[in-house]
């Protein structure tokens, strides 16, 4: 599915609260910009039977007290079974998710520090990490830019 269609789906499926569809439209350029760093338009994400994304806690080898929580996004269904414990737990499912939807959901996933996109099928060494903090910063900048663009110039008269 192309990126334009993914954004349309996000907008169409957003709550009709008078704000969210406009917000999604406003941040769409940031979502598209980030997806250009990635190789695939959709990825498989491991989920529990309750449809919660599976978090993995990673520890720093040099400083074991330093941890981060990530969600892995896999390029193929085969990569899910090769690189995760999914095969060991029948309650886990791999669901294919459009890349813009993964990024959009990352905004609301407070316990998640990053999404780690595995980019090359069959390999675990080529990854692209999108940090939640980086995404939030870019989205804030985009929203501020949108707001200032709509202000009435002081010398309009």
Task: Provide structural commentary.
By secondary structure, this protein is an alpha+beta fold. It has a single domain, classed as Uncharacterised protein PF11572, DUF3234 (Trna Endonuclease, Chain: A, domain 1, 3-Layer(aba) Sandwich). It contains 5 helices and 6 strands; from the N terminus they run ααβββαβαββα. It has helices at residues 3-13, 20-35, 77-83, 99-108, 132-149, and strands spanning 42-47, 56-59, 67-74, 93-98, 114-118, 127-131. Strands 1, 2, 3, 4, 5 and 6 form a 6-stranded mixed beta sheet that branches. Helix 2 crosses helix 5 (132-149).
Q: How would you concisely characterize the structure shown here?
A:
This protein is an alpha+beta fold.
The Rg value, from CA coordinates, equals 18 Å
SSE order in H/E notation?
Answer: HHEEEHEHEEH
Main beta sheet strand tally, sense and closure: 6 strands, mixed
**How many beta-strand segments?**
6
CATH topology: Trna Endonuclease, Chain: A, domain 1
Helix content: 25-40%
The helix-and-strand class reads alpha+beta
Averaged pLDDT, please?
88
The fraction of residues in strands falls at 15-25%
So how many helices?
Answer: 5
CATH architecture: 3-Layer(aba) Sandwich
- The multimeric state of the shown protein is single chain
State the separation between the terminal residues, measured CA to CA.
47 Å
- CATH classification, class level: Alpha Beta
Envelope shape: globular
Q: List unreliable stretches of 5+ residues.
A: none
The CATH superfamily label reads Uncharacterised protein PF11572, DUF3234
Number of domains as seen in the coordinates: 1
């Amino acid at each position: 599915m192309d990126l334009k269609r993914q954004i349309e789906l996000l907008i169409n499926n957003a709550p009709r609260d008078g704000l969210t569809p406009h917000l999604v439209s406003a941040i769409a350029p940031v979502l598209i910009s980030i997806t250009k760093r990635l190789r695939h338009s959709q990825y498989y994400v491991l989920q529990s039977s309750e449809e919660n994304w599976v978090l993995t806690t990673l520890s720093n080898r040099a400083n074991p007290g330093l941890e981060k929580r990530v969600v892995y996004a896999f390029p193929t269904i085969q990569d899910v079974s090769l690189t995760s414990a999914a095969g060991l737990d029948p309650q886990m499912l791999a669901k294919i998710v459009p890349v813009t939807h993964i990024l959009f959901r990352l905004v609301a996933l407070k316990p998640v520090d990053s999404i780690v996109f595995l980019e090359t099928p069959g390999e675990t060494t080529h990854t692209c990490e999108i940090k939640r903090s980086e995404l939030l910063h870019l989205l804030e900048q985009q929203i501020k830019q949108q707001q200032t663009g709509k202000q009435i110039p002081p010398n309009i008269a």
